[in-house]
Design a protein that fits this description.
Helix content: 25-40%
Strand order of the largest sheet: 1-2-3-10-5-8
Oligomer: single chain
Shape: globular
Largest sheet: 6 strands, antiparallel
Amino acid sequence: MAETDAALRTLAHNVRTARTRAGLSLDELGRRSKVSKGALVALEKAQGNPNFATLVRLADTLGVSVSALMEGRSEGRVRVVSEERVAPLWTGELGSEARLILTTRGPAPAEVWRWRLRPGEEYPSHPHQAGVVETVSVTAGRMILVVDGAEYPVGTGETATFDGDAPHAYRGAGTEPCHLIMTVHLPPGPASAA
């Protein structure tokens, strides 16, 4: 429980800092991100339990990575992230999950995600900010990548990349779970270093 409270305090601090840096009021951040002002007030007070979609909308609106909203201060030059520190940010009803492993630092950071998609389960994502590029590399199984309504099968050993500013979704295909590594490349800019 203490770990969850600490994570919420870190998230609250990082959202408030990024919002202030961007010069946005709570009302304006809410309007742009389509997150209610009440939810934002609670979040900045380290209360509530924001879902994955909310975190993505806030990160996109603020021009930062999801992990920039969630991570504490850097612990040094090299970061080693242990498996037990990486909780799922999304869990599907059939047991699919997405875990944000880490985000690289610098003017154009990249998020590294580990996904498991159960056959038939889908995660729909809203379009990201312009300049975001996603890459998915399937390490086991098969998936269907849906970008702007078109379906692209991606199997073991295959990699696909696309501009993330279009509606997109990831769906497990076949009879076995699909395992994949996703990178989300954020556009360079002063806000992405938050």
